[in-house]
TrEMBL record, chains A, B:
InterPro entries: 4pyrrol_Mease, 4pyrrol_Methylase_sf, 4pyrrole_Mease_sub1, 4pyrrole_Mease_sub2, Dphthn_synthase. The keyword Lyase does not apply. S-adenosyl-L-methionine binds at L9, D84, G87, S112, I113, L163, V221, H246. Belongs to the diphthine synthase family. One of its GO terms (biological process) is methylation. Transmembrane segments: none annotated. Keywords: Methyltransferase, S-adenosyl-L-methionine, Transferase. This is Diphthine methyl ester synthase. It holds the Pfam family TP_methylase. It catalyses: 2-[(3S)-amino-3-carboxypropyl]-L-histidyl-[translation elongation factor 2] + 4 S-adenosyl-L-methionine = diphthine methyl ester-[translation elongation factor 2] + 4 S-adenosyl-L-homocysteine + 3 H(+). It is an enzyme of class 2 (transferase). One of its GO terms (molecular function) is diphthine methyl ester synthase activity. It comes from Penicillium olsonii.
Length: 285, 285
């Protein structure tokens, strides 16, 4: 059987008791290591589980899924996923491939950033669709996310923005020369995300959001050193949130008073928060 | 310290290793028992934890929160929540009360139905706002949810519908006479939800959805006997999903081919599924 086991958000102890039991008795254990990261490294997981863990990069999962699934008809193979197996990044492709091979799948759910973001004090009921923000390059600044944010903004809902990570990326030169040399990992920060959002608005000029729009920056959700900051997008462009992973929530107009009170507590600046809030937010608007 | 510990979705083994450690060493352990249920009872939890668990009903949480928090400035008090502490039902009020009393809070995240619903094969990115469906009564059939579903439908997004549960409810007569006699618990089924949705559409006649609209019924998400069914709302009015808890997802027009393939596998009737799908769904529409 193929077991997709969610690891949760922070460290090795965020696995569920059920998940841990399966990991301990499985034949092989893979760790999906290219769309999200835990705040501890693989060695820490191996020590905690008392067994080796095989790192699965994008290449292995996308082109070598049959290697992962080898023998799963007779024994238990575990595929560990940071967060929830069907959370932000879905692994339906692996399940579908297993199904084709006649291999059963079992999913062990866990916390995902898509529910964990409730730690901000914003109600999950008030979120619209989630969007992703990729690292802009000089000649490639995709703004399709902007259209989806607009849909949420028009209804008055919050938008969770998930931030890009680059792990095991090759430079164009190394890729062209077929050299397996990888760039250091990069994790987008709340400040970079806010900056890019304002860049898109500058370019599109459709007024979906602006420097005074309120947002929440969240770092290391679910960890002991979790950090939350609220402020205007302009303020967030210079905020220092520390280690990855970061996420951002653009506040919707329909914000409830209870939500406002909760996020105001961790505002960068309560005066600018109140001023921006009074202009454009509140359930009655 | 006040610890809000998520229990996940199915049984006693869905708690995280970190959560279990806190439960074992805490001074008192409460279980929030009125907005969601695990698929095992309190005795099973107590046996698994090796300690007593105090059931916290709505009354205790809403009016007796200071009793729950008593001593939390000096020792560890745990408040167990089915799913994630900040999931579908938020407990920000308890955290805010603790903050007023100068008591620190710690949250241990876990799987929530709001991310666990990814098990349907539908991408969480394609969901709009979540709505709740309450039990209709003869003279009370609230349809405010219908307006929110319309917002999602207009954009083409899926809608997760969370279904009402009634635990420790009094009959009007018993309430009037001040008798603490409670009705047996009731859990809304997928069939009841689909029926009520069609009733609302009959009444409002705004064409937000209809008997041919496609939806997914999900029962016991995350459990070994999890059950998924897809079909038209009309078909789902007679579907038998078994034990609680149930949820429903109304399919959005923007469904991706991969999502369609995944949910078609568990269609009540593949022919009616294909016919309905061809009429109104698909990413290109």
């Amino acid at each position: 059987m193929l077991h997709l086991v969610g690891l949760g958000l922070a460290d090795e102890t965020d696995i569920t008791v059920r998940g841990l039991e399966i990991v301990k008795r499985a034949e092989r254990v893979y760790l999906e290591a290219y769309t999200a990261i835990l705040l501890v490294d693989k060695a820490k997981l191996e020590e905690f589980y008392g067994r080796p863990v095989i790192e699965a990069d994008r290449e292995l999962v996308e082109t070598g899924s049959d290697d992962i699934l080898a023998g799963a008809d007779k024994s238990d193979i575990v595929f560990l996923v940071v967060g929830d197996p069907f959370g932000a990044t879905t692994h339906t492709d692996l399940v579908l491939r297993a199904r084709e091979l006649g291999i059963q799948s079992n999913v062990v759910p866990n916390a995902s950033i898509m529910s964990g973001i409730g730690c901000t004090g914003l109600q999950l009921y008030n979120f619209g669709q989630t969007v992703s923000m990729v690292f802009f390059m000089d000649n490639w600044k995709p703004s399709s996310y902007y259209d989806r944010v607009r849909e949420n903004v028009q209804i008055g809902l919050h938008t969770l923005v998930l931030l890009d990570i680059k792990v095991k990326e090759q430079s164009i030169e190394n890729m062209a020369r077929g050299r397996r040399i990888y760039e250091p990992p990069r994790y987008m920060t709340v400040a970079q995300c806010a900056q890019q959002m304002l860049e898109t608005e500058e370019e599109r000029k459709e007024g979906v959001f602006g420097p005074d729009s309120l947002a929440v920056g969240a770092a290391r959700v679910g960890a002991a050193n979790q950090k939350l900051v609220s402020g205007t997008l302009q303020e967030l462009t210079t905020v220092e949130m520390g280690e990855p992973l970061h996420s951002l929530v653009l506040l919707g107009r329909r914000t409830h008073d209870l939500e406002r009170d909760y996020i105001r507590e961790y505002a960068v600046n309560k005066d600018t928060f109140d001023a921006s809030y009074a202009k454009a937010y509140g359930a009655s608007l």
